[in-house]
Amino acid sequence: MLASLVFVAVLAAVTNADHRITLRNNCAFGVGLTLSNFPHAGVDYTGPAIGDIAAFTSKIITVPTRWNGMCLYGRICDRPPNSGCENDCFGGIAFGRAPCSMTEWTFDSANIGGQTDYDISNIQGFSVPQQIIPDSGCSVVTCTSVNCPCNQAYRPGDTSGTCGGTGPVDQATRVCGSPGYTVVYCP
What we know:
The longest helix is centred in the N-terminal third of the chain and has 14 residues, at about 1-15. It is built from one helix and eleven strands, in the order H-E-E-E-E-E-E-E-E-E-E-E. The chain is mainly beta. The radius of gyration is 16 Å and the shape is globular.
């Protein structure tokens, strides 16, 4: 009985802790990033703006427990010039603007046992190669070109979640209980 209570307490502590996201820029150029809480259905990130990350440098942000943990995504997007993606990561090709790649997150979701749902999305277009690496050894996702496979990223303009109707729904999405993640630009 005591072992069960200790396990539950440890599980509660793990699923009720803030999460660290390391943003590592391996590109030979700076990357400008925007963090979006849209549609403000979970717990909002209220920390400092991410801003620009110079070539070959890193920045760490901490997002709160349940950051958009109600099956709606928090986003971190590249915001190249003329993309419009500095506004809640809405812009890109869907709005006739320059493309902007993004990562999407749902931390501590009750729908998936308190774990995190994460993916790379190029729905607004592909603008920078990206990789998500969980700290705890769960599945890594990598997209290095506009034509990366559907099991690694959502395709430009495809809002169906099915790779243009050719695959299962949301095959780019991963689920993990990791406390932290690293997003690598130009992996």
